[in-house]
Amino acid sequence: MQLTKLQIGFCMECGVCTGSCPISYERDHFSPRQMIKRTLVDPDPDILQSRDLWACLSCSRCSDRCPVGIDFPAFITSYRQKARKAENLPRQSHHGIFQTLTTIQAGNLQQSRTSWASEAGIIRERGDYFLFVGCLPFQNAVFHYLDLQMIDIARAALILLNKLGIEPVVSDNERCCGHDAFWTGDDTLFAICARKNIETIRASGAKTVLFICPEGYSIFKEQYPRIVGELPFRMVHLTEWLSEALAEKPLEFSKSTEGTITFHDPCRLGRRAGIYDQPRSLLQMVPDTRYAEMENNRENAVCCGTTAWLECSSCSKAMQVSRLKEAERAGADTMITACPKCQIHLSCAKSNTDIDVEIVDLYSYLAGKL
Questions:
Q1: CA-wise closest residue to 72 among 100, 103, 31
Q2: Does domain 5-85 have CATH number 1.10.10.10?
Q3: What is the pLDDT of residue 360?
């Protein structure tokens, strides 16, 4: 990404990004502005070996507020590509299992990842709608130790779609969306995943792809056209589709019994996709809902603390605990989110505290009320 002299000049006299960056709260030596200074203004000869290149969460809080429109996540990703070539690699979380899974999926393999679907509802091999499940089947296997059944999110999504008359395609040939590979500077691996997914979706005959995960949704919309050109289908996040469908064909939900609920805005769903109202409208469809906003909500929401399964640290945990305490201060008994990774990260942090806030997936919450 190229910055203009005007952008760089204004950047050096500003500081909005430093006050916005959640990493800067916890690591006083890091800020987006300092990274631009160290790369473009007063070049650090060792910058490609710096661990700070891997600190950014790509949460877009800085770029959303930048008065001169600097897309810092895109900027830092361009330097991560250079860092990889210089053999400066990120610290992988969970022993690198998800990076390994992405690499395996980029090859030629036969998968069996849809058995959950035939048990939960009705799916098709071809049809107008393709349900992009993402990494939920793999996350389900990894995070049993947190007492999380991540595949229940996919089951809940399918149940809701079937109730509304949709029998989507769910494919064994779906691959990782490549989100994490892209944001960690591995554009080659990302491109392979992108092409394989487009081939699979095109073969299904789908005209609309529904995304459970905000990361898949955002990476398809933002980066897939760069790799494969114009996409031959419509992309819709499931919260968008459900809010419209349920407005036309309401389902009967039982009353809320979860106490006061709040919604945690995922970075990719909120700041990167601009979807704020639809999840909240879905929650209000449940009778007797008591809703409270956290202090930092919508475009000001704080990231769940880590991204792309890398650089999880005490800094990440501090951010996660702070977010959970924010929910407590709002009087929430239940925090609902629409991102599988947010649920995992916040649940992990909560397991080491006495914070009494339940963390629940949006689709599981809604399907449980049918």
A1: 31
A2: no
A3: 97
